[in-house]
Specification:
heterodimer; A: mainly beta; globular; B: mainly beta; 7-stranded mixed beta sheet; 53% strand
Chain lengths: 110, 114
């Protein structure tokens, strides 16, 4: 089993739609969690950290379920500019090596 | 703003050549990382370093070595390039701290080995 798994997509959604991405991780001792965004032919950039209580940043909501080892990202009111690959990232040990999921590709259509 | 730079955006080398990929960060980060990214496989960690002259193997270190002589610079070396090392190489850096620590990435080097 891979350490971090994601549905590869692609998810093709119309503008204004709500879309949810899921991610599962295998290491129950993992300490911190992130969603990164990667545009085509660009480097990954941090979208948001994921906290145990869940957190929201504008149209984006991240949830963590430690018992099920599951992380989610919800995007509301999708924009064309949200089209990208979304990477689920797990950090088993603070500050050092991260484990990246394979990414979920999102295309928001006009 | 944190800046991570990589020496080349695109590189073409021949099988058997020795290849150096350089990465420099300007935020005094302790940790630096080298990944390769391939379609369908995502980012895979090759090596990382948590201090000058320190290095740790990642998931796929075979065929690679690294050097960290100065805190701001982390080099990836392909001793004898092979066609299966054709890939996008991404360097990243981060602080060492408790809690959620962001990794900052360079723009990547697309390496083609012929």
């Amino acid at each position: 089993r891979k350490e971090v798994e994601q549905d590869p997509g692609p998810f093709n959604v119309p503008e204004g739609a709500t879309v949810a991405f899921n991610c599962t991780y295998s290491n129950s001792a993992s300490q911190s969690f992130f969603w990164y965004r990667q545009d085509c032919r660009k480097e990954p950039k941090l979208l948001m950290s994921v906290y145990s209580s869940g957190n929201e940043d504008g149209r984006f909501t991240a949830q963590l379920n430690r018992a099920s080892q599951y992380i989610s990202l919800l995007i509301r009111d999708s924009k064309l500019s949200d089209s990208a690959t979304y990477l689920c990232v797990v950090n088993p040990h603070y500050g050092q090596n991260f484990v990246f999921g394979p990414g979920t590709r999102l295309s928001v259509l006009p | 703003d944190v800046k991570v730079t990589q020496s080349s955006r695109y590189l073409v080398k021949r099988t058997g050549e020795k290849v150096f990929l350089e990465c420099v960060q300007d935020m005094d980060h302790e940790n630096m990382f080298w990944y390769r990214q391939d379609p369908g496989l995502g980012l895979r960690l090759i090596y990382f370093s948590y201090d000058v002259k320190m290095k740790e193997k990642g998931d796929i270190p075979e065929g690679y070595s690294v050097s960290r002589e100065k805190k701001e610079r982390f080099s990836l070396i392909l001793e004898s390039a092979s066609t299966n090392q054709t890939s996008m190489y991404l360097c990243a850096s981060s602080f060492t701290a408790g809690g959620n620590v962001e990794q900052f990435f360079g723009p990547g080097t697309r390496l083609t080995v012929l």
